[in-house]
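Problem 12. The chain below contains 216 residues. Write out its predicted structure in token notation.
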Amino acid sequence: MKIGLLGGSFNPIHNAHLRIAEEARSACRLDRVIFIPAADPPHKLLEGDVSFTRRSHMVSMAIADRSAFEMSTVEAERGGKSYSIDTIRTFRERLPEDELYFIIGADSFLDIGTWHRYAEIFSLCNLIVVERPGCRIINPLEALPEAVRGVFTLDGNTGRLMHHCGTTVNFIKGSPLELSSTEIRRLAAADADITRYVPSDVAAYISQQRIYHQCQ
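Solution.
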């Protein structure tokens, strides 16, 4: 099977996350996409100190009616910092016969050289890089960290990057939404309507639990 892995703080999950997952699934013909909420994100603080339990519950609600999507709590089970390399290794061990695709936005791809043991990611799985508003990958090889460019070649027909071990980096344009979790938190804190930005069940849960009121 072809399995997509989509990580994030999901604070909260919103419609752009869902669109990224669906467009990656369609473009690369994935059988499943697994959403992986970060338990302890290494690159940023969780604004509002929203618990993993609440964030993962919002993810569960958001994907409840989408049969190709599921959620994993692997990062909370493992403990410690939620490094992507450790999560990918876990899925590689659990799903040795499956083809893994790690889904990230173009902005994250341009920053991947700062990630913990990032070079190992390319040999463990394929990547799907989804265009984000205001962030396009013009030259895939130049977008790579300089330290790893030598192990890649560019397929001129498909635009994919080919790693020497056989994995690929796939770039898709999609139809990116201009959505920000920061802005959604600000609106929720002000009791504004956020149903345009998040699934209705998630919006109701945020309102009922007053999750982001401490962000005021």
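Discussion. DSSP finds nine helices and eight strands in the chain. Students who got a different answer should revisit the alignment rule from Section 12.3.
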